[in-house]
Each structure stands twice: as structure tokens, then as C-alpha cells.
Amino acid sequence: MSAGGQAGAGVAGGDAASAGPPPRGAQLLSALFYGTCSFLLVLVNKALLTTYRFPSPMILGIGQMAATIMILYVSKLNKIIHFPDFDKKIPVKLFPLPLLYVGNHISGLSSTSKLSLPMFTVLRKFTIPLTLLLETIILGKQYSVNIIVSVFAIILGAFIAAGSDLAFNLEGYIFVFLNDIFTAANGVYTKQKMDPKELGKYGVLFYNACFMIVPTLVLSASTGDLRQATEFNQWKNVLFLIQFLLSCFLGFLLMYSTVLCSHYNSPLTTAVVGAIKNVSVAYIGMLVGGDYIFSVLNFVGLNICMAGGLRYSFLTLSSQFKPKPLADEESIPPDLKG
Length: 338
What we know:
By secondary structure, the protein is mainly α. The protein is 75% helix and 0% strand.
């Protein structure tokens, strides 16, 4: 409950930052908060889907949506946060975010269950060039040659690692590339929709979850996913239940921290912080999890990819936290300018 209190405290003063350029402390802390939540959620989900062999990624996603709805609604009732009440214009204002949101959820959980942690984190790096491309097209941003070179290093390393993956799983690759597309599009469109005068960041989170929880539940029932979950034999295992509930709560924290990081920084910075987090996840995955098969070429590709990700992270974050950020590397979005 203390973590929820901290989230609430952050929520209480969140929209105030939209009145002018965000303080650099808030930029850094929101980035660290996002990276920590993302790191912990990947490890917990990996344990649930691989170690315990929980058969239903969709039910896990539904649990995370339910946690988001309950926490935000209770916070609104207690006047910790504010977002507008429902009206018929909200679905129009929000589209296409609900579809991207549920696609991001399901594809992410499905790919986590089918790939080793190192390969999952390498292939997730394709989110970065996709985000860069979408920010250029949708938000009109431009980036320096150094950043573009770092992106190509990330892609090169990912191709080398994927080409020599001895545990190749086509279904896992398809899910993770879909997850990259949904993540990039979700981040950019969330930034576009987070107008404090409209839904605000908490309204975006709440109504996204509300609109998609019932369709996802129906899809889960129609595909047999729900039946597999109800027949799962570990529901009386206290340790499993604790990790399942932890995943639901961390799912809310990840969604909140993603929006917070994009609010104070940008979707690209959020993707970059994810790349830094992936360094830790990938190397931990080589030691635990038991599903990484070592090969020299795969290991070299992993390291090229990680090096490119770290250089990319250094360039964008260091330029952003200078007193006068370079406009071509990380321009301040119009909605954050005073």
C-alpha cells in the first residue's frame, strides 16, 4: 500500500508540471521510476509465465487493467487525483489508444512467455527506431546523426543476435515485433492525447483500461484462454498468488510510470530508458530462467545491441538534462512549453 501512496503523491502534483517546462529532477526521477517498474514487471511476468507455466497471458493483462481501474477510481473518489467524468465524446478523443493499449498488453505478455529473456530484450529494442520514426511523422521531431547512428547499431546487434538464436521461436518473434509496434504507437499517441485540458494523463490511463477490459475478457473466453486460467492448478499456491497480485499492481505502476515519463520527457526518452533497463534484464536472463542457449555470435550480437542502446541512451538523456537542450536531439514538446 505504501507504493500506491507514493504513486498517489506523484499523481497529486502531476498536472501542475504542465504549466511550464518540467523540472530536471522530475524528468530524471520519472525516468528512473519507469525503468525500475519495467524491470521488476518483466522478471515477475517471466516467473509466472515460464516458471509456473501460467497458461493465460490475457488474464494476466486483465488483472493489470482491473488493478489500474480500481486504484485510479479510488484515488479520484478520495480527491487524490482528478480526471473528467465519462461523456460520449471521450471514446472519440481517446481513439486509437484503447486498441493500441490492449494490443501492447497481450503481445508483450505472449512474447515474454515464448522467448528467453536475453532475446526478448534484444528484439524489444526495435521499439526505439519505430518510436523515432513515429515521432518524426506524427509529432514532427528531428534527431541528430549521432542518435540515428546509435539506432542503426541497435538494429545491427539485434539482427546478429536474432540470426544466431539457437532457441528460435517464430510465434515468439511475431508477438515481440507486434509488441514493438504497439509500444511505439501507444507511446507517441499517448503523448499526443495527454492534454491536461482534455483527459489528462490519468484520464487516458483510466478510460483506456475501462474501454478494453470487457472486450479482452470476451476475447479470452472465446479463445479458451479464460478456461485454461480457471483450470490452472496453482491457484491454491500462496507464492503464486502473491506473484500474480504483484504483477497486477506492477502492471498499474508500469502504465502510470510510462505516462509520467512521457509527460515529463518524451515517448523517445521512455523507449531509451527501457533500453537501459534491458541491459540488466538480458544479462540476468543468461544466469536465471534456464531458457537461454549460448552461442558466440548470439552473445556478440547481444553486446553490440546493448552498447548501441547505452550510447543512444547517453546521447538523448545527457542532452535533455543540459540547461539548454539541443533541439535536434530532444526538443521540448509544445504542451510542456511555458
